[in-house]
Amino acid sequence: MVNLIIDGKAAVATLNGGYIEVSSGTTTGNNNGTVIATGTVLVNATRLNIRTGAGTDHGIIGNLGRDTKVDIYEIVTVNGHGWGRIDAGKWVCLDYVN
Questions:
Q1: What DSSP string describes 4-18?
Q2: Sequence-ordered list of residues with C-beta below 8 angstroms from that of 3, at least 6 positions apart, any chain
């Protein structure tokens, strides 16, 4: 689960049966590929790898420390895990953010 702010409103993105489900207030939608959204999350791991693409098969190009705030611009699923794009060519696994 990832908490987001979309258009100034709180929203939650979760994986649900292979789909990304985004809920905001009374509105819920899902997508089987990509969700384009902007939100800020907080890293809850000691060190979160930044990768060149979504998935562990992409190279590590940096990392973020615990309690770092980072903006998410796009969410995709890879092998049942959510990945968030934090910049052009920079992705983090959403399993390690709140």
A1: EEETTEEEEEEEETT
A2: 10, 11, 12, 39, 41, 98
Cα(97)–Cα(64) distance, integer angstroms: 11
Distance between CA atoms of 19 and 9, rounded to whole angstroms? 22
Q: Across all residues in the chain, what is the average pLDDT?
A: 78
The CA–CA distances, whole Å, from 43 to 30, 51, 98 equal 24, 15, 7
Residue 6's beta-bridge partner residues?
9
Cα–Cα distance measured from residue 5 to residue 3, given in angstroms and rounded to the nearest whole number: 7
Closest CA to 41 of 62, 13, 7: 13
Predicted TM-score of the model (pTM): 0.68
- Give tens-digit pLDDT for 25-67: 544 445 555 555 567 889 999 999 999 999 999 999 999 999 9
